[in-house]
Amino acid sequence: MRFVEVAREIRSFLEQRDAPVALVGALALAAYGVARATRDLDLLTLRSVQPELVSFLESLGYETLHVSSGYSNHLHADAGRGRVDVVYVDPATAEQIFGAVEEREVLAGLTFAVPRPEHLIAMKARAIRNDARRRLQDMADVQSLLRATDLDRSEARGYFEALGLGPLFDEIEAGL
C-alpha cells in the first residue's frame, strides 16, 4: 500500500474542512517503536465529517465496506491504495485526544499526528470489548506499548477499568 500518498491525500481533504486527523493502528504503534505488519491505514477524525469523508473516499474509487457512528471501513480495488479504516469521535473526545497529539515521523517522508500511547491503549481496550476476535492482537499491542514507552500506567489501567476490563489489564501487565 502507498501509505504516504494515501495518508497525505486524506489529511489534505480533512484539513480543508478544518477537521483534525491522526494516525492510529499499526502506523501509530510504529511511531512509538512498536513494529507490527499492516496492510491498512487507520485514521481518527471528527464524527461530524464522516458523511463527507465517506463520499470523498468513494469518489477516489474506494468501496465502503461498513459505516457506523464510530467507524467506517473502505477498500480500493487497486492494492496500492489499499484499505482505509476510520475511527470517528465526538467533540469532547476529539478535544482530549487532539489536544495531546504529537507530530512524529511514521514512515520515511511521512510525519503525522499520533495520539499519546495512553489514548492508543484506550482505543485498544474499546476494540477488545467490541470485538472478541481482536483480543489477542490488541492485547499484544498494549503489552508492546507498555514495554516501549514511558506512559502513565494508572491512566492506561483506568481506560480498561472504565470498560469493565480491569482484570484483563492485570493479565497484560503480568505478561511483561
Give your account of this protein's structure.
With 176 residues, this protein is of the alpha+beta class. It folds into two domains: 1-115, Beta Polymerase, domain 2, CATH 3.30.460.40; 116-176. 48% of the residues lie in helices and 23% in strands. Strands 1-2-5-4-3 form a five-stranded mixed beta sheet. 33% of the residues are buried.
Summarize the structure.
The protein is an alpha+beta fold and 176 residues long. It contains eight helices and seven strands; from the N terminus they run H-E-H-E-H-E-E-E-H-E-E-H-H-H-H. It has two domains: 115 residues, Beta Polymerase, domain 2 (2-Layer Sandwich), CATH 3.30.460; 61 residues.
Attribute tags:
48% helix, 176 residues, 8 helices, Beta Polymerase, domain 2, two-stranded antiparallel sheet, 5-stranded mixed sheet, alpha+beta, 2 domains, single chain
